[in-house]
Amino acid sequence: MASTLSQARGRVLEYLEVHEQATVRGVAGALSLHENTARGHLEGLVEAGLARRERAPVRGRGRPAIQYRADVWAQADPRIRDYAHLASALATFLSTTSPDPQADARTAGLTWGSSMVEGREPQTPRQARREVVAVLADLGFDPKTDSGAASVALRRCPLLDVARTHTDVVCQVHLGLVQGAMTEMGQDASQADLRPFSEPGACRLILKPPRGG
Fold it and tell me: What is the pTM of this model?
């Protein structure tokens, strides 16, 4: 999120990042704003290049409503854009051609994750988890972790649009990425777990289950 955004406008952007499409009325109701205020923030995000304005599909008579959606590429590193385009193509391909798209997606992720950390030699499991978090940060997931890097909120998804359509495939690629990286660094990856869209504005990645869990 751009550091120059006001707190109120930042909340509107976060709402757009969670909801695929939103209207002025929907944003105003969800965030307890006057509709004119919500419209001002939405238009400000469009002018800043952080959101897009679109016409809703025509249904019946009358002018179609205006909808807004976050532009997930607005501030992305070019390397992240390249990754996202390739991964989107892979997810779509597997979803339509593979007899077991989830298994194939996980396999692709395992290979990819292993290559991402090749040559890294962390001394402790916690250091290995932090290396995984660093990889996810480089890929644009905006991770927020606890002190032990055991539980991680992934606050941005570079494949958000595709993930909504092919959730199982995209998330299996990402889980495979994490497991492949942990295995490459000599760690037990069997209990790593990814919980898609499990909380407002984030997916939850578990790298180390709680004791007894």
Answer: 0.64
